[in-house]
Write a structure and sequence with these properties.
The protein has seven helices and six strands. By secondary structure, the protein is of the alpha+beta class. A three-stranded antiparallel β-sheet has the order 1-3-2. Strand 2 and strand 3 form a beta hairpin. The longest helix is centred in the N-terminal third of the chain and has 16 residues. The two termini are about 25 Å apart.
Length: about 130
């Protein structure tokens, strides 16, 4: 799960740096899409759902995608979790953490676990997400 999450974040970072065609995104990250079980249409749908996404030739077979220049940088889930855990005193049960994340952020418990494990300032001890001090 961590590799998949990091792969999706890398695609977002690439799209913030320059415009990519759908073919380029599909071919360059083919292993990621295979791991997710996504075909070209699902990748296209995911790209269109990203905030601040600019689409050129959206009706064509090979649209061009880029995250807008004025868009704030994509927030890392791990950093979001750090802020929430800090605000709640440094220790939070995983089930409660999911309900305290910003509105509109849709995540699953496995996604939270993967982000906590990947972040150097967080640890998962039993059911608790804790800041490392």
């Amino acid at each position: 799960m961590t590799d998949t999450l990091m792969g999706l974040q890398a695609v977002r970072k690439d799209l913030a740096a320059k415009a990519w065609t759908l073919d380029q995104v599909c071919q360059d990250r083919s292993l990621l899409w295979q791991r997710l079980g996504w075909d070209r249409h699902q990748v296209r749908l995911w790209l269109r759902s990203l905030p601040d996404m600019e689409v050129q030739d959206g009706e064509g077979d090979d649209p061009r995608y880029r995250i807008g220049l004025d868009a704030p940088p994509a927030d890392d889930l791990g950093e979001t979790i750090v802020r929430v855990v800090e605000a709640l005193g440094g220790r939070v049960p995983l089930a409660q953490l999911r309900t305290k994340l910003p509105p509109g952020l849709v995540v699953t418990d496995p996604m939270i676990r993967a982000a906590v494990q990947a972040h150097p300032g967080l640890t998962l001890t039993g059911p608790l997400v804790q800041l490392l001090r």
